[in-house]
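[step 3/7] fold_predict: job queued, chain A
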Amino acid sequence: MKEKEKRTEKQSVNQSIFWVKGFAVLLAVILFFTVVSRVAASFTVPRVTVAEIGSGKIGHDVTASGMVEAAGERAVCTLPDLLVAQMSVHAGERVAEGDLLFTVDLEQLGEQITELEEQIAKLSLENEAAEKNREQETKKQQIEEQRAKEDYQDIVSRQAEAEKQRAENLQEAEAAKQRAGEDLNVAIEVKQRAEEAYNQAVKELEDAQEQNQAALQENMQQKKADLDSCEANVAEKKTAYDTSVEQWKALQDAAGTEDTSEKDATKAAARAVEDAALSESTDNTAQINAITMEQYERQQKQLIALRELNGEVRADAAGTVTKVLVETGQKTTDTAAVLLSDEDRGLLFTASVDSKYREYLPVGTAAELSGSGRRVEDCTVSAIEIAEDGQKVRITAELTGDSFTPGESAEISITGKSDSYDFTIPVTAIREENQKNYVLVLDTENTILGEQYVARKVEVEVLDKNSTYAAVDSSALSNGSQIIADSSRNVSAGDIVRLEEQ
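[step 4/7] structure written:
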């Protein structure tokens, strides 16, 4: 019995040992696979770098290369057609007041002086001849004007006399017409009385007795004869009146016609006087020659003064040669020969940048200029101009001091406008899908392998950005949120990730 109990006890112990060993093996296997899985995850799970979201400013700094130029220039001029014997300066060279710029050929200079002397003498002779001609023309014009005035006065006098005579004739015709009218009226009255007397005699004859008819018949005949005589007188007076009326009308018509003709003659005579007064010689040769001579004399004085300086043209003030417009062996023109910077007006720097920076570069923005080991820190943006294509913006900055000279290249650095925002993140964290911006936020979740990091998608609105940082807005974000800024491999929403050790 004891042996059986001992055997049973031994079997139980062995069985316990078996299960302990099996459990140990299972734990070892689990541990092995856990280690293996974590080792595998270290190679397969993306490693990410995160940045905490927080408030900050988004600045827009602009850097561009450009050229320094003079804000203003002074032209160094001389007379045209002078042969440059030696140009002594070149563009970009700094000169002091009185420094030699170029020399003109003295022989050619002397030839120009001589040619001007000849031209002045020739114009002087022409002026003498022109003055004589002008005097003769003036006398001729004065005579013509006087004759025209005399003709005008003669016409006016004759017209006045004719007008007076026409008035008298018309007055007489008017009086004759009136008299003829009065005579006609008297004759008509006499006729009317004779007619009444005749009618009365006829009536008396009709009413008379037989014994008185002979006498009344004779009286009636006499009255008839008187009436006929009166009618003849009326006809005569009527003819005389009509004739006087026709004569009066004819005088009136003639007066109107003669008046028009005389007015035309007077107007023509007056115009002849005006023409004679305006016919003074319009030959301006003398005046033109005088002006030309004055110009030649002034040029001659300048050339003589230049000859006395041995043909040397020097800088009238210190500056930098910005342009040389004529070279040795060439002739000067009527424009400048050399352009010098006007140091009193300072310097300008110009450069072009992308138009996207326009809103960040208001006039008055501070800037810094550097180049050739030199630096100017107190520049100011003075002008912003958009190019015709709209793709570029021309920046102009004013410089102070003498660190740079016109014609030098330099680089400008401008601290553009910056604004403060509640949420700022690295610009590398911004992703885009279906024309919408989003970020991946680092989150945690429990798995069979334990707590792991997971990428979670959050849509955002980009308010502003530069090359480094972006300002965003989203109700799903808060200060302290960890944003995936970079990763070892491509990461999508829902992916398990591993935090890169700092």
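[step 5/7] annotate
The helical segments are 2-44, 106-207, 213-278, 285-308.
The first helix runs from residue 2 to 44.
exit 0
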